[in-house]
């Protein structure tokens, strides 16, 4: 199927209005439904799932420290839109097929409101998972100003629920950030990058079987999903008309498996101002930005001297990353900017020289070091799957940090893929990466480094909640468990991995 590129305008999700807002708190209700939406003008309308009848869902905008309550409501049909594999954890036939639970990715939040994968619920909360505590979640929004996002997190079907459309943005703002005079309002635009494949009738395609099918099964999970088209905010290859001035773009990779290496064909620098966890110490000018699933980067694009030009945002990352297929004439294209709108007023926004302090966590302050492997496994059907620390989801909890303590985690990647590792609840800092001898580790369980210490990439020098653990490397992260106690998770954000055992519970204890 050949869809024309840059045929449709980029949609910008609406800002969600609260049902109630007073001095003490703000209250929202968000309903999940199935509906039809146009994802490209040459395609029939596609049946998708979304929040408040939108895919992506409406953007939730809050002030730092604002107390927010959200009632998440499942109003979906009871048959899934996409093929369910009943053999993966949490998705066996003893549970209803359509289950949902919402996680605000990056939020520092009490565990009962974090969207634990087994806190799922069905329509009308008629059936709930064993960790379901309440329908109305509470967010204290203590995070720094940042681009968070909300998405489904149901055990065993997250990949399907997000692919169906259950994802949206969640911004935290504050006054200090406003005083920086960054491009704002209609010049502050979120871009949710995803990939999808369509059936000829316009419906969403998601594989029923891996390339090497499992004959015993009607439906089997696939080791990765790589789509044929690229969507931004739910449109395939859109364009955006812009003024010749500065814009702030909030880039999010919300794909199942695909990494994006983002460049502009104008060769202009991208001024990155924020990582997953908010503003960096100062902007950095880069030629490209690599985003693994769930990672965010905020950038200022300056179109000031480009009136009349069309600029294409491109992707160069092989899929799966890093050893997979190179991009082709379709997957190398993300979207287009048309610098054709007249300047409505003088652009007084700035790219500040300094953004906010970035205090580095000190290695000496860590009271606990954990060595955690990323493992390649084979199941009884001959399918490859991945584990964290050699343990499945149901094994007893092994990561039990103490409230107030600082820890360093060594992510020892024994596999051939990059895995975007995400921790709920806290932001961490990337210390470094280093090559090591995988053979020797497998035999003797010791880390024998074979390369020099690699500092974080420029674009990673800030607060992170998701980091690429690259193949045959030890990736070290440091974090302080400063806020809440309770039950959370850490996992690979490749959704096909997360849904099949590459996720572990962890608990912050007092
Ligand atoms: Cu983006 Cu555990 O999630
Ligand atoms: Cu993974």
From TrEMBL:
Residue span, Plastocyanin-like domain: 45-176, 384-508
Classification via Pfam families: Cu-oxidase_2, Cu-oxidase_3
UniProt-recorded Gene Ontology molecular function terms: copper ion binding; oxidoreductase activity
InterPro entries tied to this protein: Cu-oxidase-like_N, Cu-oxidase_C, Cu-oxidase_fam, Cupredoxin
Recorded family membership: Belongs to the multicopper oxidase family.
Protein name stated in the entry: Multicopper oxidase
Organism of provenance: Perspicuibacillus lycopersici
